[in-house]
Amino acid sequence: MTQNQSLVAAGPPAGARIAVDDPATGAVVGEVPDTSAEEVARAVERARRAQRGWAGLDTRVRAGFLARGRRWLLAHREEVADRIVEENGKAREDAIVEIVYCAAAFSYWAKRARGLLAPAKVRSLSPFVLGRSMYTRRVPRGVVGVIGPWNNPLLNSFGDAVPALAAGNAVVLKPSEQTPLTALLMERMARECDWPEGVFQVVTGAGATGRAVVDTVDFVMFTGSTRTGRQVAARAGERLIPCSLELGGKDALVVLADAALERAVNVTIQGALSNGGQMCTSVERVYVEAPVYDAYLTLLRERFQQVTSGRPAGLGSVDVGAVTFPPQLAVMEDHVEDAVRKGARVLAGGRASAGPGRFFEPTLLVDVDHTMKCMREETFGPTLPVMKVADAEEALRLVNDSRYGLQASIIGSDMKRARRLAERFEAGCVTINDAQTNYMALGLPMGGWKESGLGVRHGAEGFLKYTRLQAVSANRFPMRRDMHMIPYEPSAYRFLLRLVDVMYGRGLRGRAD
Ligand code: NAD
């Protein structure tokens, strides 16, 4: 083992701290503990004890706690928005969206939990189980570890804790080391709303703290890069615990020849530049059918030049804020330089802006192709490459020419044609005449295909993953013996075969078991 490996395995030394900076100014705005593996294990132990009582509460009582959390969030929305903007550097409008999402999540999961957790009857026509009463029931997994990224400090961290809690789990949340302050505010929410102690805890720290979470919890809800997602899945596999992975993307948008161009341009700009382009579901490549390419591009370029960027302050101050994670600036520069070297043209922006904060100009690239990194690798910034295609079939081939498959969008007027095309995209989510808004529909599952993830958040599937399934079968009228019991009686099997002939032999009844 090298010295480096042993340091990683040991994790942070006791009492270590992590400084948090404001990406828009570079100023240090906070400091949080770099939680050790031992402290994580203690937090999970506390959570485990608290979870038993929490799971025993009626769903209506848990809903009451979530309602208090919702009211707290709305009462403290200015403070929460300040904190998100300060540690992430995003426009205030984008921070508000996170708060609205979480208020809705509190309300939605509190209401839906009861129905989703209700036992479900199962019927069977099998002669072996005649007269049995059978049902499935849902049992919370225990302690759920939620590990989040830095691009949405509230929505992609606490937002995923809400359904886990509603399902009767305790949650230990490990926010990104870049943006841990918002999560700590939510820990304060839990205290001030008198949530049972230990039911929701935050452990701050970097990768080693995240690994310690994966090492100790019963289920991992991970949002982050594909690279880290693989490590989480590997460790979860060793421990034989389930995990849900929401990973990177290279989302495409296709503009069809019959698209309403104003809508197409507005959706493109919102999809590419909201949150400074630092969204897993950011539109990162556009394919335009040849007949409308010039008109679309003229309008897009004009609008791109009107986008404001810089240090976020109050509402209306900027459209695009700062670059949250320092190494991302180099990725953006590399993707633009690589594209230009291979023949692309920059129609707007193209550079990092001068400090003290970290900013990248909203950047529009054309004459791009799939040999360029900007068309194949996740950029995660306010850059947008646009490519002309002969027709929708070429667009479809290029959309699917990706290792990612998170989301893909189409803008077009002929809904039938757009839907047929969208359904051929290799992506977990497809949207028509929209991009990203689907995330706000909590009943609609959201998850990636290919290297964009495993499992989903939202929808019944995104909630039920936080539960284990128990199948109960009860023989209400137990007889002395069943037809299929040792010692075997040949007459019983002759009867069984006659019965099977009637049920399945002639294919007349088509009855399903
Ligand atoms: P990251 O993978 O670097 O880190 C994510 C989290 O994992 C952080 O909290 C980090 O401390 C922790 N971590 C690091 N190593 C770990 C390990 N070995 N075990 C456990 N935890 C570990 O990702 P990031 O840079 O914070 O986030 C950006 C990425 O997240 C982008 O790729 C983006 O597309 C993706 N993302 C995906 C979604 C989605 O829903 N699919 C949403 C938001 C962001």
From TrEMBL:
The keyword Oxidoreductase applies. Keywords: Oxidoreductase. The keyword Oxidoreductase applies. PROSITE patterns: ALDEHYDE_DEHYDR_GLU. Residues 16-472 form the Aldehyde dehydrogenase domain. Transmembrane segments: none annotated. Pfam families: Aldedh (PF00171). The active site is at 246. Belongs to the aldehyde dehydrogenase family. This is Aldehyde dehydrogenase family protein. It comes from Streptomyces hyaluromycini.
